[in-house]
Amino acid sequence: MKFCSSCGSPVSQQIPEGDSRLRFVCGGCSTIHYQNPRIIAGCIVEHNQQILLCKRAIEPRKGYWTLPAGFMENGETIEAGAVRETWEEALAKVSDPQLYTLFNLPHISQVYVFYRGALQSGAFGVGEETLESRLFPESEIPWDELAFPTVHKTLKHFFRDTKNNDFPIRIEDITFPRK
Amino acid sequence: MKFCSSCGSPVSQQIPEGDSRLRFVCGGCSTIHYQNPRIIAGCIVEHNQQILLCKRAIEPRKGYWTLPAGFMENGETIEAGAVRETWEEALAKVSDPQLYTLFNLPHISQVYVFYRGALQSGAFGVGEETLESRLFPESEIPWDELAFPTVHKTLKHFFRDTKNNDFPIRIEDITFPRK
Fold first, then answer.
1. pLDDT tens digits, one per residue of A126-142
2. Are B77 and A11 a contacting pair at CB < 8 A?
3. Which residue ranges does chain A devote to CATH 2.20.70.10?
């Protein structure tokens, strides 16, 4: 951030009075521009004991496999964002989504949230940001070609929890360098 | 948003190619400025069957009682944000915080997250954004002077769940006009 989005004057980093953190503050109109973490919402979708993965058509991690997920938008709930992203990336509709995993990634100021659900009528396709979509049984998950640690961990939890038929909400912090 | 924070040129609202939503796009450098929901993190802190509330010293809802909470910052986890806000607003330290309630407020693009915990050594005080802090038993909660619906609902859940000694994670959407 170099300029004020309200008045266009240059900003500088300062600790405002009563605050304890550096913020971008406008030299013209004195507006303080706060920056906050973003939520990424997605789904782990099951059909006949297989999981729907998408091969990414865009950076970062182009060509790697992911669970459908993306940035939550203004005006929606986390669940609505997760379901929307699953539609946009995999043309898949999700039945009965349930909150499943939540990851804090403080080094990149992100919070990942995955919902667990069933694939409606077994139908899916290839969205604009996807090269290929496919249902994988556990034995064929491309563990070495997954896009993100959050995807890896959600899949691991899912297959373990499936054996017990119990899916508690899983909360984890992912730090870098990784613990 | 009127100006580009990267180059200072005027922005306009457009739907970028491949997108489906209006975004602020810079007329100079073509940067797309995404806006996303923010997370508010806080704690419901118990001590001797009483709950710690803070009377707000700032708008919105100045003079009304709240659970300590505030905007999650870049570089922290949700739990760290909840614990930090409890310290800043009530000079209270929280033992063993557990995720408890999560509220989507899509009409204001916020997600509220409350952790449940115990008050360390019974100590608390009055932070900069607080007029008064106090421990309330259930019978004395100022229900008509609570600052936010998320506070009201978290307290209601808490007292109900206390009777069963079972505190499942509670997820709700709060829409306006309220359902």
1. 999 999 999 999 999 99
2. no
3. 1-35
Residue A15, pLDDT > 60, answer yes
| pLDDT for the residue A178 | 55
Q: By percentage, how much of chain A surpasses pLDDT 70?
A: 98
**pLDDT per position as a tens digit, B129-168:** 999 999 999 999 999 999 999 999 999 999 999 999 999 9
Question: Is CATH 2.20.70.10 the classification given to domain A1-35?
Answer: yes
Residues of A in Cβ contact (< 8 Å) with B75? 106-107, 109
CB contact under 8 A, A3 and B2: no
Is the CB of residue B11 less than 8 Å away from at least one CB of chain A? yes
* Comma-separated ranges of CATH 3.90.79.10 domains in chain B: 38-173
Q: Among residues A94, A114, A93, which one has the least CA distance to residue A103?
A: A114
CB under 8 Å to A50, separation ≥6 — which residues? A135, A136, A137
Task: Label residue A103 left, alpha or beta by phi (over 0 means left) and psi (-120 to 50 means alpha).
Answer: beta
For residue B109, list chain A residues with Cβ-Cβ distance below 8 A.
74-75
Q: Do B18 and A74 touch (CB under 8 A)?
A: no
The pLDDT of A39-44, averaged and rounded, is 98
What is the homologous superfamily of the domain B38-173 according to CATH? Nucleoside Triphosphate Pyrophosphohydrolase (3.90.79.10)
- Asked whether residue B178 carries a pLDDT value surpassing 80, the answer given is no
- Contact residues for B56 (Cβ-Cβ < 8 A; gap 6+): B62, B63, B64, B65, B66, B129, B130, B131, B147
CB contact under 8 A, B111 and A78: yes
Tell me how close the Cα of A138 comes to any Cα of chain B, in angstroms. 28
CA-nearest residue to B105 within chain A is A77
Single out the residue of B114, B99, B76 nearest to residue A109, CA to CA: B76
The verdict on a CB contact (< 8 Å) between A6 and B2 is yes
For residue A177, pLDDT beyond 70: no
H helix intervals, chain B: 78-90, 149-164
State the ipTM, two decimals: 0.94
